[in-house]
Design goal:
Elements (H helix, E strand, L loop, with lengths): L6 E6 L3 H12 L4 E7 L2 H10 L4 E5 L7 H11 L9 E6 L5 H9 L3 E4 L4 H12 L7 H10 L23 H11 L4 H8 L3 H15 L4 H10 L9
Parallel strand pairs: 1-2, 1-3, 3-4, 4-5
């Protein structure tokens, strides 16, 4: 396989041993290549100014600049390879981590536990590189429920902060809420008595209208806008 077709990966973690282990796993794949490493967020910002990457594996708890703020700067300011040119996967030790929550809000495409199995790591990177999220909406929902108290305003006051929601049709709004509740396309289709292809079309239009990257971001917005109450089914 030509190098140009490989998934270019940058590793950002303050643990050299972990970076070394991940590099060995990823460089052994025919379709992947580790093109850079950084030990903290500041170094990552500098590295990505000159390094073309497809996927960034980002630790959340690092000295100098943590993974959440680094993610926010990379995806919000269009630094280096630029907004939309690479995806960020967060590395965390805990599946319910307030840092991971912040990274999802900042635009990360999902998170992985640091003890992830090699096969799962490789599969996750391929999934993200293809444009999908790797965190189950149900897992994301559980994460958001755990940290819903950090949302700054009461649910009743949140929706006016998201005027773009007014661009959705009634059916698109129903689909958005269903995605926010962690339902799959198949489950949404069954509940709304439509085809799965129709649900996929609705999800695509929701992502476009709301300028969201993936389903994980739909879940985050649904909670931040108060469309779903923590603990609601």
């Amino acid at each position: 396989m030509k190098d140009a077709m490989k998934i270019r990966i940058v590793l950002v973690d303050d643990q050299e041993l972990l970076r070394t282990g991940f590099r060995m796993i990823l460089d052994a794949q025919n379709d992947m290549e580790v093109v850079g490493e950084a030990a903290d967020g500041v170094a990552a910002l500098e590295l990505l100014e000159d390094t073309e990457a497809g996927v960034v594996l980002m630790d959340v708890r690092m000295p100098a600049l943590d993974g959440v703020e680094t993610t926010r700067r990379l995806l919000g300011d269009g630094a280096g390879s630029g907004e939309g040119h690479f995806k960020i996967l967060i590395l965390t030790t805990f599946d319910l981590d307030e840092y991971a929550f912040g990274a999802l809000r900042a635009g990360a495409s999902g998170f992985l536990l640091k003890d992830v199995r090699p096969g799962e790591l490789v599969a996750a990177i391929r999934t993200v590189a293809a444009g999908d999220a790797v965190v189950s909406p149900r897992v994301t929902r559980r994460l958001l429920e755990e940290y819903a108290q950090v949302l700054p305003v009461p649910a009743s006051q949140r929706e006016p902060r998201f005027p773009q929601l007014s661009t959705l049709t009634e059916r698109e709004r129903e689909v958005l809420v269903a995605v926010g509740r962690g339902l799959s396309n198949t489950e949404i289709a069954a509940s709304l008595f439509v085809s799965e292809a129709t649900v996929k079309s609705h999800v695509g239009r929701i992502l476009a209208k709301l300028a969201l990257r993936d389903r994980v971001q739909i879940v985050v917005l649904a909670y931040e806008a108060g469309l779903i109450k923590p603990g609601a089914g």
